[in-house]
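Sample 3 of the quickstart, ligand flavin-adenine dinucleotide:
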Amino acid sequence: MAARELARAGLRVVLLEEGGDHLPRHFTQREDEMIPELFQEAGGRRTDDLAVLVLSGKGLGGSTIHNTNLCKRTPPEILAHWRDDLGLEGLGDGVMNRAFEEVERDLGVRPIALDQTSRANELVKRGTERLGWRGALLSHNRDQQCVGSGFCELGCAYDGKLNARRIVIPQAVSAGATVYSDARVDRVEHDGTRVSGVSATLTDGRGRAHGTLHLRARAVCLAGSAIGSATMAIRSDIPDLHGQLGTHLRIHPAAVVAGVFDEEVAAWRGIPQAWECTEWLDLRPGSTRRVWLIPSFAHPVGTASLTPGFGPAWLGAMRRYPRIVAIAAMVHDETAGRVYLDGDRTRIAYVPIDADREQLALGARQAARLLLAAGAREVTVPAIPPIVVRRSRDLAAITRERFTPHDAKLSAVHPMGTLRMGRDPASSVVDARGKHHQLRGLRVTDGSLFPTSLGGPPQISIYTFALKVARDLVEELAR
Ligand SMILES: Cc1cc2nc3c(=O)[nH]c(=O)nc-3n(C[C@H](O)[C@H](O)[C@H](O)COP(=O)(O)OP(=O)(O)OC[C@H]3O[C@@H](n4cnc5c(N)ncnc54)[C@H](O)[C@@H]3O)c2cc1C
Ligand code: SF4
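Result:
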């Protein structure tokens, strides 16, 4: 988004992406082939203690290539907190709504019909309604080329996603931007007061170096995700008087709960995620209801790795795969993790604090209740040993104690916050315009910006903040 805006303003723009340029014909719908291609660390990136799987993308278009296209604006409660409590300027309702509308128009965001989605969404809706809970169908950025194949997380072979690769990157190129894929930025060059360019390694598609690239630039926008951008900043020795780089990481940690139904659900058919249950999501500061419930579908290998047990017991569980509906209980987290470098290796320190483990348990409990209400015969929380729920009174077994590291299986797909916005340089990295507090010419245009977790899907917020930051940069460069 930043590349497009800067190019449209007539600036000379170069966009560098460490992953490849994946086209629809490359998406084979096979986990073994696509996950290593499309995800950082071949889909195996984990927190330091290996307890949380952290998925984020690699390739032109970033995580929008394999995301599930849910679109939601930054929640009003979150914007109000950033504006009123943290003092961030420029986040008034009028300005923000106009920016959201513009981004949604660009990305073709629209409501989708429930009958285009997987049966799992219908069942989660049924459970929500039977309990009288709050829920809604979400809008998506996909068009009529989407045939509902259900493979969104492995890249779309039908080119039905209106993602960064299909929309904003071609617009950037039309406006004159130059794009390099397989080009890993090693350093942002600077003299301690202002940026002067970047140095990158060109790779052969398998990560093997075959050249270098040095670019001189008046401005550099970091857009490598909350993990990649923090790593780039640390590796580049960006001024960090107050030790803020890489800190305050949020990830929306999620527990998955699986219900087995009598009917064949075949959750792999149809658009995978569309219905949200927000009954347990109150985003006001200090809230003790911080979980977002959303259907979660895993392909067979992913499901196999999450299914607890060994031998015949495990095989029996996997045989029920066609009848499973899973829900992810994602926590609007307060844990402050940290991205850091260990030699050249990116590391993530993140251990959920007690209050967030309480929320994981709350989310898993309520997701299990919802699945029972929807008609599940049995619900399993994949933990060691698994927690099996057949009736309401079994729900009491889902407690915070079961969410210690390595007990329940946790995953996260929304890294945020490592170069966060703030007024005070002692507790933030950039200001409300994404501008680094000390280093002139350095901006941040990705999920690293957010000073707190969002409590929902981040892509619309990221596109929108990138748009705002880039426009501000254009004005600054013109001055
Ligand atoms: C499975 C999955 C499903 C999701 N579903 C949704 C959804 O439905 N809705 C939603 O809103 N969000 C969803 N998300 C999250 C959303 O896609 C991400 O939050 C968002 O794309 C992050 O944007 P970003 O710009 O911060 O980083 P990314 O989109 O991750 O892009 C960063 C890019 O920078 C590149 N990079 C990193 N370091 C370097 C370097 N040194 N040099 C060059 N390039 C580098 C990376 O390879 C990557 O391509 C999902 C995520 C996952 C993993
Ligand atoms: S469900 Fe639609 S967008 Fe997702 S992979 Fe299939 S065709 Fe593409």
